[in-house]
Prior knowledge:
By secondary structure, the protein is α/β, with parallel strands linked by helices. A hairpin with a 6-residue loop joins strand 25 (521-527) and strand 26 (534-540). Helix 2 packs across helix 3 (75-85) and helix 2 (42-58) crosses helix 6 (161-184).
Amino acid sequence: MNFDSKLATVPSLIHNIVNNIHPVTQPFLCHKVKNDWIDISYQEALEKINAVSAWLLHIGVKKGDNIALIIENGPDYIYYDQALQQIGAVNTSIYPTLSEADVEYILNDSQARTILVGNPFLFRKIQKIANNCPGLIRIIPAFDDFEKHVSGVLNAGIIGFKQVIAEGTSLLNQYESAIKIAREAILPSDLSCLIYTSGTTGTPKGAMLTHYNLTANVWASLMQITVVEKTDVFLSFLPLSHVFERTATYHICLAAGCKIVFAQSLELLAKNMGEVKPTIMNCVPRLLERIQDKAMKSGTEAGGFKAKIFLWALRVGRKYRYAIEAGKLPGLILNTQNKLADKLVFSKIKEKTGGRLKFMISGGGALPKNVGEFFGDLGIKVLEGYGLTETSPVMSVNEQDRQVYGTAGRVIPGIEVAIQNIDTQKIYTIQTHENFKPEFESEEGEIIVRGHCVMKGYWNKPEDTAAAIDKDGWFHTGDIGRFFKGNIQITDRLKNMLVNAYGKNVYPTPVENTYLKSPRIEGVFLIGDRREYITAIIIPSKDALQTKFGLPESFFEQEKTFIEDAEIIKWIAEDVRKFSNELAKFERIKSFKVKRKPFSMEDGEITPTMKAKRRVIENKYARAIDDLYAADADDTL
């Protein structure tokens, strides 16, 4: 699929579909209403999109205005976003699980005057901080009976989304020409969205992504993965406030003419997969790990003949995969065995995904190599990719006909990716899609990138922008990696950012500083990279412990590394719970160990400047850390 400069803005994509790919009556979106899956055609969607655009123009929204959304996935997100895009306004999506303080900061920093709110819980959150946001003049609840959830006196006005659409529909004749003029006036270099990422200081930064950033990234991704077709059905469950789902599902479907079906929730995802029967899904590593765990448990827990058949099938699937990946034709015996393994085992697992999956794309965090191989053995293709919010996001993705497990794939067309020495700044290699060599390997260093995917900069933060994008246009990812068999392979992080199993970034310093407000806590070492939730090693305040429990000096000199006294743990947990309320849910400590002595330079645990050596500590206390995840998190908190 070739990039067309006429399709370099987000609103141009949907109009290309109805002009050149599908009739307007073709289903575009689908969601569940009560017990039924309801299709929404392009025509129905465009009518609502245009109505919202008319209303926004009527209230004075102009090109370049930042408009906020805090709403879960669904048709309303699409209507509102497309309405913004085609009049040149800027989508400022806020992740629904962010803390009130972060939401307040984003609203004030972006100067958003209007916000669309998705449900009563989020509505309550916005009402708590609305009067601290002097620029916010309008709140739009996107749910019924919102009036009964209004509490207190708000400076901002409130109007329901249904009323917005109704009023906009009556204004369409008046604003139809203005909408078309606004859409045609959008330049590829104009801002499409602000997506806020957490900073190391705790201050979120708004990545400015242009229409060209997003559309060029989509077309390049489709050139890399050439098997996406207009008949494909995507099941969407990852948040559209995250750039991964927005690009890899929403915008891909806008470009290729695919149908988007919205899952009801993460809890109902398995049920929805069986009902919808998607052909493509984007997912995070944790979901794939859960599917693997359930499949292994189901196949082996009964023991006996059933378990033997299951394990035999996996061995056959691996042999078959090895042969295919080596470019060989499996022999008659192996081919027959694999068909039998599929009939007895693999087909039953595939059926639980709906039975039609062509492939899944894994992003938002590193996919464990063994998990990717497990799905490969079943004959389910999982393509791992790599990117950041600041890179729109895709920088690389495994190709459907050439997969290297444990890597994030080949560089996409149109960009350059380099490996740079951290200390000397020497660039070891610059790789592109075009100079790809399947056996190429490089030295390790920081991964840097330049090209169409790189953001315009950070909103209102010129110093941070200059630190991230150097004078030669290279964006510094902060990730350490190399090229392995021609693909990008991530090996570490320059900074100590944690990425949980769901792809959410957690910066330890601001989170640790929140818990350090407690007089009972002297130190916090956060854990949770590629894990389902956050845990910690906590250093208690020696003085506070002695005051509370009357402990002698000898207590702190005992050989046992961790304190196991239930009363002490309960006492510290009280403050952990208290200060957790200041954090987003994904940042909160769910379980912890209490270390008797502080980390020390003598033990090689900290640097001369008192910074924790993450790798050293995680390796040294690996068994204790594993215990935090082996037990239920609620055992401690």
